[in-house]
Amino acid sequence: MAPRRHRFGLYFDLHARNITGTEVITFLRQLLRHLRGPVVLLWDGGKIHRRHDVQCVLRRHPRLEVHRFPGYAPELNPDELVWNYMKRTGTARRPLAKGQSLQDNIEADMPQIQRNPGLVKSFFRAPYVAYITD
Predict the structure, then answer these.
(1) Number of folded domains that form the chain
(2) Closest to 131 in 3D by CA, of 80, 90, 83
(3) Residues 95, 90: Cα–Cα separation, whole Å
(4) How much is the pTM?
(5) E strands of the chain, at which residues?
(6) How many CA atoms lie within 13 A of 36 on its CB side?
(7) Residue 104 zone, left/alpha/beta (φ > 0; ψ -120 to 50; rest)
(8) Domain for residue 130, yes or no?
(9) Which residues contact 75 (CB under 8 A, 6 or more apart)?
(10) Is residue 42 one of the residues assigned to a domain?
(11) What average pLDDT does range 49-70 have in this prediction?
């Protein structure tokens, strides 16, 4: 049996305002440039993910494998576990220094999470999420 490599990564892009299809497409293109092989996307049912221009990009790039959550199911979204972790352990617990924004704290904490593959996998192994079981 040949070993199959599964790489879990946490990729993010922060925006001060609601994003449009343009930002989604830009992010997808960045992922495609950065990653080799199939890219699994876990998406909620948001309108932005169903936009025609976004769907066209998905059709042009079969490496992008989309798995959609039911209509409204934040409890199934590992992303919510990331935010809960940050609230419990870092970002929300640290007071902001003068001139510092919450985004500054998030941008400082996210790379630490990214560098911890075990932690990233734990967000996908939570009992009520359970996207991976090995």
Answers:
(1) 1
(2) 80
(3) 10
(4) 0.74
(5) 39-43, 64-68
(6) 1
(7) alpha
(8) no
(9) 128, 129
(10) yes
(11) 91
